Structure formats: C-alpha cells, structure tokens
Amino acid sequence: MLTRAEFQDWHIQPVLADFRAADREEVWASCMQTPEEALRGSTENSTEFCETLLWNDSPVAILGVGEHTTHGAPWMLSVESRSDWSKPFIKLGIDIVLEMSDMYPILSNYVDSRNSVSIKWLQFVGFTISFDSPIDVRGIKFYNFWRSV
Predict the structure, then answer these.
(1) Phi and psi at residue 7, in whole multiples of 5°?
(2) Residue 109 maps to which CATH number?
(3) pLDDT, tens digit, for every residue of 4-31?
(4) How many CB atoms lie within 10 A of CB 65?
(5) Domain that holds residue 69
C-alpha cells in the first residue's frame, strides 16, 4: 500500500540505496550534485511541503516544493523499482499537486528532456511543458514545466 508521511531524515538512505537512474542523471546534469547532495539540499529548501511516499512502510520517493520569489518549485526524487507503487502514485499525484497549488498558485521547475517517465507524469497531473523553448545546461536540454491556478 502506498502511503504519505512527513519527511524524516532516515528516509534518505533507503531511497539512495535504489536511486532512480534518470533522477541521478538529472541532478548531475542540472546542478552537478550527487543523489545524496540533491536529496539533502532539496529537503532543506522545502519549508512548507516535504513528504515521503512509503510503499509497505519503505520509502520509495521524497518530494517537496522549494520556495522562489514568484513561485513554488516542485521536485521529486525516487527509487528505481517502481512497478508495484507506480499505478497508485499516478492517482495520488493529482492530490499532491493540488495541495502544492494551494500553497503556491504558480508551480514551476525544469525537467531533463531525457526523463520521459517524469515528463509523462507531469503532463498527467496537469503541468504544461515548454517543449518549444528548452534551455541548455552543460549540453543537456531541460524543459520548463509549470502550472498555475
């Protein structure tokens, strides 16, 4: 069963143990950080919303919203083995995004163009993705994604 919990520091190690390859590539390309640096930095910068998704009480994803001057910046980093919890997460994702939107009427961030699973999920939960104007970060294309209420 997929459940939500307030983020706790011990959740980081189980996620790192099976860190998703596409997330590893994305955090390195975007900010040249290791998965642990990215998780710790993201959780520290998510002041109003930071949660862990648990599959049968084991952490499988950590997500939150960092605050920027004009918007909230949603993020999520997860484990590779998604088969069991991916379908419940697709449905739960809409509720999570609506909660984030209650805190920040504008949500915006960037996604690695190679991260097709994340791109499909972002579209499913209501984000618009700017495919026509990617930015280049160290030779990798990133797409802005956004949602406003």
Answers:
(1) -60, 135
(2) 3.40.630.30
(3) 999 999 999 999 999 999 999 999 999 9
(4) 27
(5) 2-148
